[in-house]
Structure formats: C-alpha cells, structure tokens
Amino acid sequence: MSRPLKIGVIGANGWLGGAIVQALLDAGLTSPEHLVLSLRSREPARFPTARWTRDNQDLADSVDLIIVSVRPADWPALNVKAAGKLIISVMAGIRLEQLISGLGSERAVRSLPNAAAEVRASFTPWIASPAVSAEERRLVGRIFEACGRSAELGSERELDYLTGLAGSGPAFPALLATAMMRHATTHGIEAAVARQAVTALLVGTGRLFEKNGDDPESTVEVFLDYRGTTAAAIEAMRASGFDQAVGAGLAAAFQKSISMGLPA
C-alpha cells in the first residue's frame, strides 16, 4: 500500500487557505496528521492536530503537494524551492511560467476558487502544465470538487477571463443586492425587511438554477413574455445600460487579471 499523500498549504490561516483545508478534511481527501500548514502570525485554534509552521521551505520539504494561497502581492517575496513537487496555486494573475520558474517545479497548476469555497459552493477553473500527469489532474479535480465544482481549461487566457467572472464569487450578486436594498429603503422599506427580501431572491434563484438546470437567458425571456412588473424592470434596466455596465466590469476584471502577473 502506498503511503498517504502529504499536503502543505502556504497561507492556511487566510480565509481561502483555511476554507480549502476544511473542505479537504470534510471530503476525506486527507487527515490532519498528513497536513503541514504555514502562517505568518500567531498559531490559530483551528486544525489543532495538523502541523503548523512559519517556515515555508520546511513545509515544502515535508510534503508531496503544495497549495499556495497567498495574496498575489506577496508572491515575489515567497522564497521557496519545491523541485519535484506538485504545486497548486490559488493566486489570481500569477501565470504558470512564473510558478514553474519561481518554485522550481515543472508540475504546476494555476487555479482560482472563490469565496464560496467556504460553503462548498465555489466554481474553480484551473489549468495544469504539461508535466502534470493524468492521475495528478484527477487529484486536482477531486480537491476542487471538494470546494464545489470545477473545470479544467485549455488556456490561461480562459482562466484570466474567468478570474474576473467566477473568481469574483459573491461580489457581483452582492453588488446587485446592495443596489436593490438601497432602492427599497428609499421607498420606505425597513432595511431588515429589504435585506430579507433580496437575500431570499438571490438564494432562491441559485437553488432553482441548481435544481432545474435552467438557462438564465431562457428565464429572462419567460418573464419578458409574461409582460408583467418583472418585464418592465428588465427593460428599464437594459435601457439604462445594464448589459453594457456588466460587460465593462468583466472586461476590466479580465485586464486586471492579465496585468497582475506582469512585472512591476
């Protein structure tokens, strides 16, 4: 029997790193005694039976697979060598070639889960370097399926785009929710009631899409055909530039994802 896979998470005390660790444990993909976790500050109370370290090189030397979960701005200072190890990055904008040259391993995966990994509802796009084996790709898929859903992509350009779309996680629905709640309160609706109404709207929509597999565009057309209050709202929003505003936002996020990986 082969020995258990040892997994290291650089930045495990951050929200995303911690969410991934918890997802791996909940899915039974690893156990605390096979985890090495790094942090920069005081050791937290979470994952008490895993091994915590402040030495990232010690972590890299001790494990088979390394998940790098630090802010992209902290990447240049991450002085770690991990030759021969499987590397999974969850940093926005840092390209495969940078991971390979910076960490010294040809076996690299670039990915971007989002904040919904905390509730096992992230969509994680990812891409692997040619040196990552088919078996390792299946393992990567299992890791991200533990956080929600995932898809292996064919190019980094696709990942750059999805960094802005899927990587933003709840931010875009939260932006819509904020605008709706503010409008409701200007019409005399109590803030708590407005929040309940909008939260129920977004959560219920997600559950319906998940349950029925509905196509969002078809859902919009159904309401337009009904010619009721929702159709009036949709037409007014579109006339005010809703589609163009969303497109401009996604284009800006796409360009930011590309520029984040460029030298300063």
Give a written overview of the molecule.
The chain is of the alpha/beta class and 264 residues long. The chain folds into 2 domains: 7-165, NAD(P)-binding Rossmann-like Domain (Rossmann fold); 171-260, Orthogonal Bundle (ProC C-terminal domain-like fold). The protein is built from 10 helices and 8 strands. Helix 5 (156-165) packs across helix 10 (242-260) and helix 6 packs across helix 7 (191-212).
Please list the strands of the largest sheet in the order they lie side by side: 3-2-1-4-5-6-7-8
Major sheet size, sense and barrel closure: 8 strands, mixed
First CA to last CA: what distance?
Answer: 48 Å
So what's the oligomer here? single chain
Structural class: alpha/beta
User: Which H/E pattern describes the elements?
Assistant: EHEEHEEHEEHEHHHHHH
Count of discrete structural domains: 2
Short description:
This protein has 10 helices and 8 strands. It has helices spanning 15-26, 56-62, 96-103, 134-145, 156-165, 171-186, 191-212, 216-226, 229-239, 242-260; strands at residues 7-10, 35-38, 51-53, 65-68, 86-89, 108-111, 122-128, 148-152.
